[in-house]
């Protein structure tokens, strides 16, 4: 195997995917490559992935490498941070049998991951899943005890200008199958007009489909400037001590933001705000709702998510369920509009008839007499 090309590097895979060009080589440092990151690389039409870390560590069965294999994108795996630091943005490199060269100098090497190896590593990860599940449950319970104030009123909901009361709220997270789910929700968005809330990169997903986010919630690490500028309101997720690293980025753009100190995830506080401001229904799209989702986010438990969903209860529904239950109907007004459109040319032709014109005049006189006009 021999591959040549220009290199683009970033420790944040999703950031890299936004600026890498088709046919270039992606250099990342991403242990347990997740689904969303892998799909973003596929969409960028890259040539090859070089990973400083293990693309499948064996802790759990992550699907990112399988997605790349389906698109015939190989991975040079686990080259280490020394080689990662040695390689520079826009380097022209050659990879031959897993060995990386720059100007005939060997920089490092890694394991060539093909489809067969990915299948084997994924199988081993499934065997380890029970151990990881035990840890995950223990951590969830431990942190739930610490974060119970999230639903007991200890966390203050900041004042917001967005009007949630008695409205549907669609919370969009750039998670599993988010594009397919958003596509299925178009009729719902057009007819119900929900409040559109983008959680970090979810705001860009809303923009991609031709809408503007009413609210952007997050720590501002994966949302574009365009989405922030288009948003009706910005909520920066801060640490419980009030520190909000993402606020500086918003202010540097000349924008205002609400700061929301809270434990848990940004999608949790997006739902909690909608609930506290009396949203009629909260629809979750692409949100993280199972162990694999949270492990892919690097979280050891889902305490805050469990607590928030426990609180908002029946007001929350998954977008996939909405798209299945909510079938856009051909409303009567549309039927009448179609009929009127079809009859319009007929009416024009008929109205030119002398007999019809005489009849219309008689009807007009009759109506005037009845109304005593």
From TrEMBL:
It holds the Pfam family SteA-like_C. GO terms for molecular function: ATP binding; kinase activity; thiamine diphosphokinase activity. The keyword ATP-binding applies. Residues 112-139 form a coiled coil. Residues 194-230 form the Thiamin pyrophosphokinase catalytic domain. InterPro entries: Put_SteA-like, SteA-like_C, TPK_catalytic, TPK_catalytic_sf. One of its GO terms (biological process) is thiamine diphosphate biosynthetic process. The chain crosses the membrane at residues 334-353. It comes from the Bacteria. Residues 320-371 form the SteA-like C-terminal domain. Keywords: ATP-binding, Coiled coil, Kinase, Membrane, Nucleotide-binding, Transferase, Transmembrane, Transmembrane helix. The keyword Transmembrane applies. This is Thiamin pyrophosphokinase, catalytic domain protein.
């Amino acid at each position: 195997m021999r591959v040549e090309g220009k290199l683009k590097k970033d420790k944040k895979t999703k950031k890299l995917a936004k600026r890498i060009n088709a046919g270039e080589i992606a250099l990342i440092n991403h242990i347990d490559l997740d689904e969303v990151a892998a799909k973003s690389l596929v969409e960028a039409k890259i040539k090859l992935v070089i990973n400083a870390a293990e693309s499948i560590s064996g802790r759990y069965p992550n699907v990112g490498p399988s997605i790349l294999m389906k698109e015939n994108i190989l991975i040079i795996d686990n080259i280490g941070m020394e080689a990662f630091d040695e390689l520079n943005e826009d380097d022209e490199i050659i990879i031959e049998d897993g060995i990386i060269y720059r100007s005939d100098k060997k920089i490092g090497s890694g394991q060539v991951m093909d489809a067969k190896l990915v299948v084997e590593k994924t199988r081993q990860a499934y065997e380890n899943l029970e151990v990881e599940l035990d840890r995950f449950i223990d951590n969830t319970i431990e942190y739930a005890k610490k974060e119970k104030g999230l639903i007991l009123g200890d966390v203050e909901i900041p004042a917001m200008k967005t009007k949630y009361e008695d409205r549907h709220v669609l919370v969009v997270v750039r998670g599993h199958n988010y594009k397919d789910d958003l596509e299925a929700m178009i009729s719902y968005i057009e007819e119900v007009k929900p409040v559109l809330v983008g959680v970090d990169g979810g705001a860009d997903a809303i923009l991609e489909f031709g809408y503007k986010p009413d609210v952007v919630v997050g720590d501002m690490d994966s949302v574009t400037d365009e989405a922030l500028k288009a948003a009706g309101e910005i909520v920066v997720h801060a640490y419980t001590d009030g520190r909000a690293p993402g606020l500086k980025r918003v202010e540097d753009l000349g924008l205002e933001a609400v700061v929301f100190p809270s434990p848990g995830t940004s999608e949790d506080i997006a739902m909690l705000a909608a609930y506290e401001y009396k949203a009629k229904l909260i629809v979750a799209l692409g949100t993280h709702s199972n162990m694999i989702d949270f492990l892919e986010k690097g979280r050891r438990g889902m305490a805050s998510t469990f607590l928030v969903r426990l609180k908002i209860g029946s007001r929350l529904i998954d977008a996939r369920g909405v798209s299945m239950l909510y079938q856009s109907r051909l409303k009567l007004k549309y039927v009448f509009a179609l009929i009127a459109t079809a009859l319009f040319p007929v009416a024009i032709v008929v109205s030119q008839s002398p007999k019809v014109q005489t009849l219309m005049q008689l009807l007009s006189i009759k109506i005037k007499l009845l109304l005593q006009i």
